[in-house]
Amino acid sequence: MQFKKISPKVSVSPQIAVKDIAAIKAAGYRAIICNRPDGEGADQPSFEEIEAAAKAEGIEARYVPVESGMVTDQDVAAFGQALAEVQRPVLAFCRTGTRSATLWSLHEAKKRPVPEILAMTKAAGYDMTGVARRVANGGKTPTDAGDAHYGVVIVGAGAGGISVAASLKSRKPDLEIAIIDPAEIHYYQPGWTMVGGGIFEAQDTAKTMGSLIPKGVKWIKAAVAAFEPQNNAVILDGCRVVKYDRLVVCPGLKLDWGKVEGLEETLGRNGVTSNYRYDLAPYTWQLVQKMQAGRAIFTQPPMPIKCAGAPQKAMYLSGDAWFRRNALKSIDIQFMNAGGVLFGVKDYVPALMDYVNKYDATLNFFHNLISVDGPAKKATFAVAKPDTDPTEVTVEFDMMHVCPPQTAPDFIRVSPLADPAGWVDVDQATLRHKSFDNIWSLGDVMNAPNAKTAAAARKQAPTVAENIVADIAGRSAVAQYDGYGSCPLTVERGKIVLAEFGYGGVLKPSFPAALIDGTKPSRTAWFLKEKMLPPIYWQAMLRGREWMAKPEKLEARAE
After folding, report:
1. How far is CA 445 from the centre of its chain?
2. Residue range(s) in the chain whose domain bears CATH number 3.50.50.60
3. What InterPro entries does the annotation carry (predicted)?
4. For the packed helices 98-108 and 114-123, what is the interaxial angle rounded to 10 degrees?
5. Order of all β-strands in the sheet with 391-396
């Protein structure tokens, strides 16, 4: 655990865990201030968990959450108030410590010379030069000049970001590329369904970010605060500025756990779990193994969500485990779906319905989870069926698998890049921004009407890379994305319905029907999911080897 002392009374650190609290007490800290909002990362404990552990050790804990990279004057005031009210020394933390250092710097700027602040934060390992510029500029970060400049800047080092960087490097090895992402760990998120089903181990879905960034690509380990596309500038945590010739935006989406009342407080306890979080997927399997009787609820929020089949995948794998144990007759499976259909592409529904019937699951459409009482094991849903008055229903449960509501990240939604719904506004074929010609987007954050899956990013990355290289050469776009997405629906252990489709629900099978008929459960598709797709992800997709993902030539458009 790294405690970085800025002043005799204030230290900052990256994200802490519950197990770190004893060391924090031993180091003499009397209080903790959390500057990281709950639900920001897939491997992040909630503030409530941290607070409970701190109180057990006699340490005061305060929650002053600040959106990544977006330190406002109000945030600084709240941080200052917390500092004034708690006993010292204090340990403040966020994802990397930068937000906490920024808050302290701006708070101290009212009474301490800026050069002194810079020296103190530099000694702790944080560069607050951008904060100094913000102070000197009346509270606004200037973007006419930058701290660094690159030919291509990529925001986000998830599946889309690393893949497009690798695809660009394979086409233009001399291109100066930077990836901006604060995360230390990169996750193979499609594997979490398998973790929740007892097939994969959670640690096998994670690798260090540094081991995956393509050779020759600069990794800027920071969060993005804002975009100023008119100045070709990205503002980072700590008010630093990175300039670009071309920008690729792919930070993924935000899992909005806080939108469901009571959910954050009970996640990981009281039988409430989710395969959408790295640390909770193993808990799903624990609950499934332990359950002998009772009611199991599986929820799905309104679209769009990443991997729309994941909520029901959890239901099928759980149902299969109970079926094999001969416990299914004592378990009531309820699927609560905010939408009106089981799956958006009708060709796959008959096969899925066979498994709904096999597991005797009840389908409840137009049911949207709005609150959870974990200790009482009750969940409340808003029910909005067509042509009927909206109502609410409260259901008791013994186990509940939750798929959280999902939105674009906050720094995207408030940016000039966003459409009215908050997603990055792109041409659905070329993936180029509709308003800014030197910006592209891919992955879950953009607004093309495709399924938000890793398989979609696998196809999108070469398209974006090809079009950027064409743009550098002074040519128009040459490649198009056809909306391809894949959802391997794990209907039982050993069989998968391999849904592959493009824009408009058009089927886009990758294999001959004689090998894999995607509309029927298949052992071959299971082998693909379990044995082939993880190494393809790590060793091909993230390394620019475009296996079955070569860019499709752009069709001429009618004027």
Report:
1. 10
2. 148-253+408-553, 257-406
3. BLH_phosphatase-like, FAD/NAD-bd_sf, FAD/NAD-binding_dom, Prot-tyrosine_phosphatase-like, Sulphide_quinone_reductase
4. 160
5. 367-373, 378-383, 391-396
Tokens of 255: 């899992």
pLDDT score for 558: 44
Proportion of the chain above pLDDT 90, given as a percent: 83
Determine whether 394 is exposed, middle or buried from the number of CB atoms within 10 Å of its CB (0-12, 13-18, 19+): exposed
User: pLDDT band for position 472 (50/70/90)?
Assistant: very high
Interval 34-71: pLDDT, tens: 999 988 887 788 899 999 999 999 999 999 999 876 78
Helix then strand count (H, E) for the chain reads 16, 28
The strand pairing partners of 254, in sequence order, are: 407
Cα four-point dihedral sign 223, 225, 231, 232: positive
Per the CB < 8 A criterion, the answer to whether 90 and 29 are in contact is: yes
Class of domain 257-406: alpha beta
380-397 pLDDT, tens per residue? 999 999 989 999 999 999
Tell me if residue 94 is catalytic. no
Is 239 among the catalytic positions? no
Q: Residue 226's CB: how many other CB atoms inside 10 A? A: 18
The strand pair at 485-492 and 439-441 is best described as: unpaired
- Do you find a cis peptide bond into 311, omega within 30 degrees of 0? no
**Where does CATH 3.90.190.10 sit in the chain?**
4-136
549 has a pLDDT exceeding 80 = no
What percent of the chain clears pLDDT 70, i.e. is strictly above it?
Answer: 99
Q: How confident is the model at residue 557 (pLDDT cuts 50, 70, 90)?
A: low
Q: Is residue 30 within 8 Å of 90, Cβ to Cβ?
A: yes
**What is the C-alpha to C-alpha distance for residues 191 and 201, in angstroms, rounded to an integer?**
9
| Tens of pLDDT, residues 418-427 | 999 999 999 9
pLDDT at 421: 93
Nearest Cα neighbor of 87 from 146, 30, 36, 136 is 30
Contact yes or no for 309/337 (Cβ under 8 A): no
Which phi and psi angles does 465 have, rounded to 5°? -60, -45
The single residue of 94, 239, 307, 403 carrying the catalytic annotation is: 307
Q: Is 276 exposed, middle or buried (0-12, 13-18, 19+ CB in 10 A)?
A: buried
The domain made up of 4-136 is a member of CATH 1.10.10.60: no
Residue 453 DSSP SS3:
coil
Torsion of CA 43, 44, 45, 46, to 10 degrees: -140
- What backbone torsions phi and psi does residue 170 show, to the nearest 5 degrees? -70, -25
Query: What is the model's pTM?
Result: 0.83
Q: How many CB atoms lie within 10 A of CB 381?
A: 21
3-state secondary structure string across 55-89: HHCCCEEEECCCCCCCCCHHHHHHHHHHHHHCCCC
